[in-house]
Design brief:
Layout lengths: L8 E5 L15 H35 L3 H20 L8 H11 L13 H6 L15 E4 L2 E4 L5 H8 L13 H9 L28 H25 L5 H6 L5 H30 L13 H17 L1 E3 L5 E3 L3 H8 L1 H26 L4 H4 L5 H27 L5 E4 L2 H4 L6
Antiparallel strand pairs: 1-6, 2-3, 4-5
Helix pairs in contact: 1-2, 1-7, 1-9, 2-6, 2-10, 3-7, 6-7, 9-10, 9-14, 10-12, 11-12, 12-14
Length: about 425
Amino acid sequence: MLRALAAPTVCLLCAAALPPVAAADAPDVAAVAKTYADIAEAGYTDSLIEARKLEAAIDTLIKTPTEDNLATARKAWIAARVPYMQTEAFRFGNKIVDDWEGRVNAWPLDEGLIDYVSQDYVDQAPANDLYVANIIANTSIKIAGEPVDTSNITKELLSGKLQEAGGVESNVATGYHAIEFLLWGQDLNGTGPGAGNRPATDYDTKSCTGGHCDRRAQYLEVVTDLLLDDLAFMAAQWGPDGAARQAVMADGGRAALIAIFKGLGSLSYGEMAGERMKLALLIHDPEEEHDCFSDNTHDAHYYDALGIRNVYLGSYKRLDGSVVAGPSPSDIVRAKSAEADARTQSALDETMKLMDAIGQRAKGGEAYDQMIGEGNEAGNALVDEAIQALIAQAKEFERDITALDLKAIEFEGSDSLDSPGNVR
């Protein structure tokens, strides 16, 4: 699997030390911090609610493995991604989130660790001993030369021994993308039309395809239950007594401003524009698209961008239609510089417009992996426009930081943007 070299951290802004942020019409900083924490709590709670629906659909699939029930489980997975992707705006600026995130959303993954894969995939043979370990087919494997009993697929096995086993980030055994692979299977279409096409009979112990249907069902059940555990943990961290909420409320809420702008700038620039979009476009590799098994990447990017907008404007629409809103970073920026806030909101609008255009193109029949395909000039151009909009958006966050006289904040970088010659 092709990957970029380690991404650098980019200093997009090096400013003076943090003085008081105050203006006659500016909201209280603590109130902005509270809104930020309230939106996080609501987003992770909604993610947990949707994951429970996914679990119910998966239970039905396992008990009655029909194509209709598989389709229902897939729809539940796609629905579960909607609130979760909006929470990614809380990464990077909040250590508790970034340390945890790999448990639920790590990618790309070497899917041969989990289940059967195509011979073409096997033949790639990268320098990862567990590249085709196939936990579902094997009751014992070796990690770093030591035997590991995999006869019983448990939460501890998946999260404690297999996740990033051997220090290899692509050894992903848990989270949304492990579930995605188990529901769709590999997408063997390259940059052509079509997503993964795993049959429901892969879970039918009476008419089993793919072998080991009982263990595949066990893995899917355990990994989904583990996702619920992880989401419940993070929702609690943003609750009234949670560690994440307490961290951003520190120093009268001033800590939240650093977390907010580091998170928004890093997600816009290094993560989305760089690692998730520019890298895949540079090498035209569908393995580098975010939701690669389901061809749901257009939605993943859209809701990531929406999450950034939610945080900046201090407003999040919950799944039940209610709105969590309050004093926002936009309000504080506008009190310092109406021009800076207007520019930022305009940049956010442009990004959302282009993400919507990508989504409309996907819904029209051209999936995101086709858009990044070599020779697809129109698709490539649209994706690149969205990348440039994200970069421009990050620059506006940089101007906001300057307007607020915040201390030096480093945004995450990406070789695909900063050193494209290093991408291989």
